[in-house]
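Exam revision sheet. Question 4 asks you to relate a sequence to its structure. Input first:
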Amino acid sequence: MQATFTGFQMPKLKLLAVRETPSYRVSVDPSLCTDAELLAAVIGGPKQIEIADAVLSHFQGNLHRLHQAASAELVSIPGVGESTAARLRSALVLSRRLAMTTGDDIDVNSPGDAYGLCLDMATFDVEHLRVIVLNTRSRVIGMVDVYKGSVNTAQIRAGEIFRPAIQRNGTAIILVHNHPGGDPTPSPDDVAVTRALVNAGKMLEISVQDHLVIGHGRYVSLKERGLGFV
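Answer key, structure tokens:
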């Protein structure tokens, strides 16, 4: 029988014993929780279970699509307001940044590997330039967003780009930036910036391994296309 209260459907959270609620289960052992339970705990509020179900349904259970979703798409889901959308995006990006910061078992051996670490950039409304720092084993030892805004030769300073690698004793970096319009085709400025930084890296003995441009659901590797790399 459907439980109701004052003419409205009773929130599912109210029907659960305390030990069955998402927040309690997450506090005991989050690794045993379902995606819906983890999302519900992040969302919070009396309708957290319904909203979590709606979010997963919207993205057909695909967390990668959820990670790439812009705020506008999130708030179009019933029950998701601006604050809930912000909490969801923050939690997803924070988890990825934590993984990249530790870098203990994250190797980057291909452009696809680097792209997989920067899926969140597809959701940015303005351009960001990110530096992935690698050690001699091609393991990630840091990731820093060094510029926000248009990426061009007039703005880029080599010192800012290579500082994260110098601070972490990194031997190589990968440059990643996004095109908010969605088309990852490199611009002439993208190529000029790449060429200048590749040459600067040679002087500093820090290799620029690649430069990725991220669009909506796809990317371009400048190194694979021979743009800016000699």
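Marking note for examiners. Confidence is low (pLDDT under 50) at residues 1-6.
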